[in-house]
Amino acid sequence: xxxxxxxxxxxxxxxxxxxxxxxxxxxxxxxxxxxxxxxxxxxxxxxxxxxxxxxxxxxxxxxxxxxxxxxxxxxxxxxxxxxxxxxxxxxxxxxxxxxxxxxxxxxxxxxxxxxxxxxxxxxxxxxxxxxxxxxxxxxxxxxxxxxxxxxxxxxxxxxxxxxxxxxxxxxxxxxxxxxxxxxxxxxxxxxxxxxxxxxxxxxxxxxxxxxxxxxxxxxxxxxxxxxxxxxxxxxxxxxxxxxxxxxxxxxxxxxxxxxxxxxxxxxxxxxxxxxxxxxxxxxxxxxxxxxxxxxxxxxxxxxxxxxxxxxxxxxxxxxxxxxxxxxxxx
Length: 330
Fold this sequence. Notes:
The protein has ten helices and eleven strands. By secondary structure, it is of the alpha/beta class. It has an eleven-stranded mixed sheet, with helices on both faces.
């Protein structure tokens, strides 16, 4: 059985989201042993599941916490979960807690894969082609990146798209402010030059943010600061458009009738662009499957985050990356 450690305390909604999320996940997965970490009295609904072990941890890591804050919080659900991951040799760990605290502390404790300079937070985004995802990295693990790190992100993203989504030859792009080779920040320009010099298979050049979700790209590479802005911009626009469409159809009886006729089409759009189904993002480049769920996770999105961790562990993604890094080093 796969072993998965879950920090149940960190999200905005706490165990009211994570515990039902675990139960939802368990309905479809009986081949996973789960270590649920949190206040034991809040995990009561899980006590009768034979493949769930409850671990008491009283402290919640604040959302603004960093690595040192996590390390000092000895009784925090986050640090207890990370230590349990190492103790039992777990296959995956999931938390919806502090992004900075979780990513930096797991990097410190689990260590980077040999040959990886920086870990990257990676997430599949929906595209206008239903069922097709585009992988974007880094979306927030780093504030600054070098051109060489962006090149390595391209390689990590390529391995991920190939092994997880089964794309034989992924189309890889650099996120920039223009498609022309000379566009972009100094870092992007230098990374573009390095990727061209390496003659990296599948590298297609630059892509603008407005075309990122068209479905042409399989992997989009960006620095963590820019990637996090892209992530939050996409989520914000998707949320705003959803509210505007609902408001437009509620204006009067005629618009409401129009909605009834268009309902099927809007449902398909909603399913295609549903970001909650991605569940969360994975920290790629460390020695373990580390999945960061949305801080605002509800039960559905947290169960999806657990499903991401499950798929990554099943795909043996860490070993795949290790092999890929060795091959690229030759």
